[in-house]
Amino acid sequence: AQKITQTQPGMFVQEKEAVTLDCTYDTSDPSYGLFWYKQPSSGEMIFLIYQGSYDQQNATEGRYSLNFQKARKSANLVISASQLGDSAMYFCAMREDDYKLSFGAGTTVTVRA
Amino acid sequence: EAGVVQSPRYKIIEKKQPVAFWCNPISGHNTLYWYRQNLGQGPELLIRYENEEAVDDSQLPKDRFSAERLKGVDSTLKIQPAELGDSAVYLCASSVRQGTTNEKLFFGSGTQLSVL
User: Do B101 and A46 make contact, defined as CB atoms within 8 angstroms?
Assistant: First the structure.
């Protein structure tokens, strides 16, 4: 069964606007961590933000915020004030107690000037 | 501080030929991962090392793939013989083993393999 689902293969956003990338996950572990990574055309996976399953508040890192809805098992990434350099592939990932990091299929974001 | 270094960046080989990828993790990172990323998909774990021990190689196709991590630092992933379906990006990542769910992985730029 798919552990991480990203339903948006590609998205376009206007520069300076916000964009939300969807991510739903499936786990029966009470303790887990959710990550978002950015992969530009250079290929390197860049860590953006982390949310723990027991964290009471939504994580924020600069222009990135994670909208964590535990009951719905969703962990959407919000990028505010989009910049041209945000154009990349974005991956949602989850780590369960077995330490494996499972990735979704990714969403391509294209920022338009 | 240097990040995770991988080489080569690109590799083109004919099927049935051997190929090897090299990874130098971030200094002090005791955990090393090899992932394979097929086109348009997310990375999938092949093998995980803690120091020089392979603690999870359940997803490594052992008939043709092998890996080693000598002295718990650099690692090499080998395919012999390569098949057309092995064309993918091979990513190396490292981390400091914390035993918690917030352990953050640092990735290299990957090796893009094309098997003709």
Answer: no
Contact status, residue B96 vs residue B28, Cβ threshold 8 Å = yes
Preferred mutation among A2, A101, A108 to probe B, highest tally of B CBs within 10 A: A101
Nearest CA-CA distance, residue A25 and chain B, Å = 14
Mean pLDDT confidence for A61-83 = 97
- A33 shares contact with chain B (CB less than 8 Å): yes
Average pLDDT of B17-25?
A: 97
The closest of A62, A65, A77, A82 to A18, measured between CA atoms, is A82
A–B CB contacts, 8 A cutoff, strictly below: 61
Q: Is A45's CB within 8 Å of B91's CB?
A: yes
Q: What is the DSSP string of B22-85?
A: EEE--TT--EEEEEEE-TTS--EEEEEEETTEEEE-TTS-TTTEEEE-GGGS-EEEEESS--GG
**pLDDT tens track for B61-99:** 999 999 999 888 999 999 999 999 999 999 999 998 776
Find the closest chain B residue to A44 by CA distance.
B109
Q: Record the tokens describing residue A10, joined without a space.
A: 């590609």
For B71-86, give one letter per residue: b (16+ CB within 10 A) or e. Answer: ebbebebebeebeeeb
**B107 closest CB neighbour out of A44, A95, A106:** A44
Burial profile A48-72: b = 16 or more Cβ within 10 angstroms, e = fewer: bbbbbbeeeeebeeeebbbbbeeee
The set of residues, in sequence order, having a beta carbon less than 8 Å from that of A18 and lying 6+ positions away, is A78, A79, A80, A81, A82
